[in-house]
């Protein structure tokens, strides 16, 4: 059982001992620390925070603890109830709120939950803000409101509909073409809030949804991370139903993957590639993904005459890079689509709408669309080092060894070769170096990873 306190939020398993798990005591403490931070940002009379949750079993309990803690600090709460991460992000700005909290452990199993923390722009906190909240919790410097100054809770269950309305108004979402195409799509909502939001979006677009695991009861029918090995039921249902394709999202609906009409994975890395292809056709410009995402996004960006740049790993870093470069589309290779025309956050719903627009415009099958993109294969490995070793020195030595290659050091060391790449990142909590590689065959990607494991061991004297 685990409690992970990081700059990106508080995540842990339900039950167990205080300080070692996400217990009610820990939940209240970190909610209070966040509330204190919110009040430090601006000196005003009324503070408002938006709260929403995915459908996991512990969600209702955790939400009551978080909301009433904020009420006890004199903060008004807008309760979205069952919602999605991108919906909460949008609600923060639409409500002109001071922040937001999404109660979700994303793709983690059902025993996990987490507090994902947002600023007043509906975006994830940067490292400095996250550290401030951890420091407040550690110091215990939280002050609560007196009885006449308690906050209030207001329920608002309209935001998924409002989110969909905003998507339908986007110029690149071709509602008439999608309706004309008459798509039939299988939806795996992993028994969370994607089972609510995705069918509503599809119906609004004139798409016939076939629901699979769309009951938001929090009993995940398979590992909720949207990877091929977990999606056999979806792959079978697509072919059984003769559907045009399948959609799967994670429990909080910020990761998106597709299955083609043959029941084959489109590839999580290629969700962003396909959506970017469509966006760039209509609005040429810059794209961004993190350094561990597929080179295929760079390929498609350059094909459309644009410029691709890579950020450090982490959504907040991708968003900042997108703002710095005025990117028209970006995201992460785990199926995270960030479309700034709507908002700066990973959003499966807008990804689905743009993907459907692409298909409707091209009038081709999903498998044919996938065949247009260069196939790359990834290998993800790690090497365990002894605590005495200087990991930074090892990575610096690797950087010097490959100084004649294209090197990026904003997040570890990434070496771009002509036909493949390797990204070496150290863990923040353990003496581990993670080795990510990509090449044009799985064998080549694995061989490249093994080669660098050997070189790292040599530099470490292992």
From TrEMBL:
GO biological processes: carbohydrate metabolic process; peptidoglycan biosynthetic process; UDP-N-acetylglucosamine biosynthetic process
GO molecular function: magnesium ion binding; phosphoglucosamine mutase activity; phosphomannomutase activity
Alphabetical list of InterPro entries matching this protein: A-D-PHexomutase_a/b/a-I, A-D-PHexomutase_a/b/a-I/II/III, A-D-PHexomutase_a/b/a-II, A-D-PHexomutase_a/b/a-III, A-D-PHexomutase_C, A-D-PHexomutase_C_sf, A-D-PHexomutase_CS, Alpha-D-phosphohexomutase_SF
Domain Alpha-D-phosphohexomutase C-terminal: 395-453
Domain of life: Bacteria
Presence of keyword Cell membrane: no
EC number(s) per entry: 5.4.2.10
Cofactor(s), by name: Mg(2+)
PANTHER family recorded: PHOSPHOGLUCOMUTASE (ALPHA-D-GLUCOSE-1,6-BISPHOSPHATE-DEPENDENT) (PTHR42946:SF1), PHOSPHOHEXOSE MUTASE (PTHR42946)
Similarity annotation: Belongs to the phosphohexose mutase family.
Name used for this protein in its record: Phosphoglucosamine mutase
